[in-house]
Write a structure and sequence with these properties.
globular; 5-stranded mixed sheet; alpha/beta; binds zinc ion
Length: about 325
Amino acid sequence: MENAKAIPTIDYPRTFEEMDDWFRTEAGCREYIRRLRWPDGFGCRHCGVIGEPWVMKRGVFRCRACDGESSLTAGTMFQDTRKPLRTWFLAMWFITSQKNGVSAIGLQRVLGLGSYETAWTWMHKLRRAMVRPGRDLLTGEVEIDETYVGGPEEGKRGREIERKSIVVVAAEKNGRAIGRIRLKRVIDVSAESLLAFIRETVEPGSTTHTDGWRGYSGLPAAGYKHYVTNISGGKEQAHEVMPRVHKVAALLKRWLLGTLQGGVQQQHLDYYLDEFTFRFNRRRSKARGLLFHRLAQQAVSVDPAPYSSIVYGKPVLRG
Ligand SMILES: [Zn+2]
């Protein structure tokens, strides 16, 4: 699975009982965050010295060398939260232990959160932590194609007109199966948009497999081997010649409809794509606790996302 080679011996809760026990107190949660942030020992952000700090009031460390203070959660997703860290940890466990994810309403119910908006904001904050900064590029043979997501739901008679979004799908070939995937919403299917996506997701020198769309014709010049299948027989044939990207596109659409009740606003689609990718690339991982650990690890390394930066549209309530 993704990241597997980067894991030496790490300590993460294996079961709900273990998680519940480890993170029963705020001190337990803080200790875990501390290990995630400073796996090689606390490093002072003022003077750079690595060493055991004085532990001041909750979540504040004082450097023994320079007396500078550092906050445990400053600069992480948990900065300025007014909820107990335990509630966040429960949320991360709940989200990663459900194979297909949860809706904001589901999260609100299980955590007993007072408002839907809080649950919705948490879901979006956690989605932001699902993409590892500087993640590996896809390699080997990679199928690439575009798909269209969203738009008016059937039976709604176009009451609410939404434009469809274009999503590019890249899927590694792993024998007959699918390896890792990457997804991205693009504004159009121009060569500029498609090549930008491929450059940031596929290792140069890899073999790309696309249809005959001219937007892909610059791939050899960009340093990729390019295998083209001209599809003249319409959709059916596309399923046969590039089965992996089409399988991924079908699963994505089903997931969006099922988990999110189809209520996806275009400006939030990017984060749903990140969540789908996070889950898909770890779909065979039996250790759900490891997913929890990965999410927690990434949550301490992403910038805090204040509510105002998330909401530029109201949450969509449907179904
Ligand atoms: Zn210091």
